Prior knowledge:
mainly alpha, Sodium/glucose cotransporter, two-stranded antiparallel ribbon, 2 strands, globular
Amino acid sequence: MYFQxxxxxxxxxxxxxxxxxxxxxxxxxxxxxxxxxxxxxINVAMIYxxxxxxxxxxxxxxxxxxxxxxxxxxxxxxxxxNVMTLAEWMKLRFGEGTEGNIARIITxxxxxxxxxxxxxxxxxGAGKFIGEFLGFPEWLGLPQEFWASVLMIGLAMIYTVASGxxxxxxxxxxxxxxxxxxxxxICFISMVEFGLxxxxxxxxxxxxxxxxxxxxxxxxxxxxxxxxxxGLPENSAYSIYNLFGIAIIFYxxxxxxxxxxGTGGYMVQRFFAARSDRxxxxxxxxxxxxxxxxxxxxxxxxxMGVSYGVTSGNVIxxxxxxxxxxxxxxxxxxxxxLLVAGLMAAAMSTFDSLVNSGxxxxxxxxxxxxxxxxxxxxxxxxxxxxxSVIMVAIGxxxxxxxxxxxxxxxxxxxxxxxxxxxxxxxxxYWWRLNGxxxxxxxxxxxxxxIVYKLLVPxxxxxxxxxAVVLMSFIALVAGTLVTSKTKDEILENFYSxxxxxxxxxxxxxxxxxxxxxxxxxENRRDIASIAMAVPWQIVLFLTGMSFILKNWNAFFVxxxxxFGLSLGLYNTWFKHLxxxxxxxxxx
Length: 587
């Protein structure tokens, strides 16, 4: 309520906090937004069923490896753009004519669709957790997870709709403290009270909906070195990961492409809201550091789940139910309440960020840009609030058709979301791409994802990804080459402001040589830094997890590697970042 008056001042305040929110608050808010109940349940399930190797499956999205790219260069590139949304960014890249408008509209529509889909995913996962744990009844023929989702989302909507990004960030900071306290308590309990026997059993979900108990050993389960093949039963729901080495390489390639192209939604919104280049880098670093504590927590819950099966004689059959069962059976009263509150805070902080950023696409890029350009700030803020409510209502209704959290997460990360990957990548690095080609790439990719899901619902994730990316690329190139190029003055302005690397020679040849040399120097540092930042983030997360797993050999080796990578990053990235106190001019 305190921030409601500030948010009502206009959409710049409502969606960006007027670029006055400190970097540490944006970073803490980002961490809280990334740590959701649905994702935590999936990640715990992967570690429980596959051991430490399950960590590498989440290179697909759960490790949020895209943060390494935002930390080094993608964050500052977006901040320099000086826009409110990814769709508005299209004006800077393609101009305000027909091609820019087409790219802007399709980007806005795509992000609204993805926002609704992710609201559905988060609502179902959070509802499944809270509904089962708190014993919600079935009412009016609707399942308990639906009513649990309505309760949590209803609470989060109050402050999200009222106070915009101001309220979202500062409630996230508070919720982040609660989440962090939860992580510390659970890790301590796991380390002190629970251990793993030399051999034990876990459970694996099957394709027919059943479960199969499988034996493993402590050494195999805690090993942070992944095997090339997993050797899981062919009827296992996780058998799609049997060619594990290929899957890891594939997920890494996907992450590099995605990270190099950036993203939309609440993640990029934090960088649009940053005060400067320097603060965009600092908030990324803080965000990533805070996220590293998630994986020790996940490993701790998985250890407690295994221990429960050993001591009770009843192996937990559904890996996705390990989290609620551990809380219900093994966490003492009081701490149990803290943990449930912390996980509810995680769910709400993800949801509020998503809804606030999603509403911006309707208000800024459709309503104000094309429906009512002369709308007053009061009308725009009103649209912001109503669009938030409507998107959430649609997302809640869609939860009634979901049966598996992992299924929708896999489709979101490897299918629907992949429809944007190629256009988002190429927009930064190829001068010839125009707005028509961008729009064709987005439309081709997302339509392929939807059609492929309907025709081949059980296809392995990498086949879905490859089909979507290939069709998106073909549509993008075709749409670009059969239409005229973007005007030179627009390209020169974009390149001078954002300073990306890539294939920009025709543009660079027309600019001042001294300025181009300065940009090349910065680009070289960024390329060297990202080569260290990606393994740095992976090693950082694995170091904390190996500590909780009590795999001391791996822990000390990882600690040494982490120190070396951190030293390298300080010299190539942070040392230069600390001297840059303001954004480059954008006019």
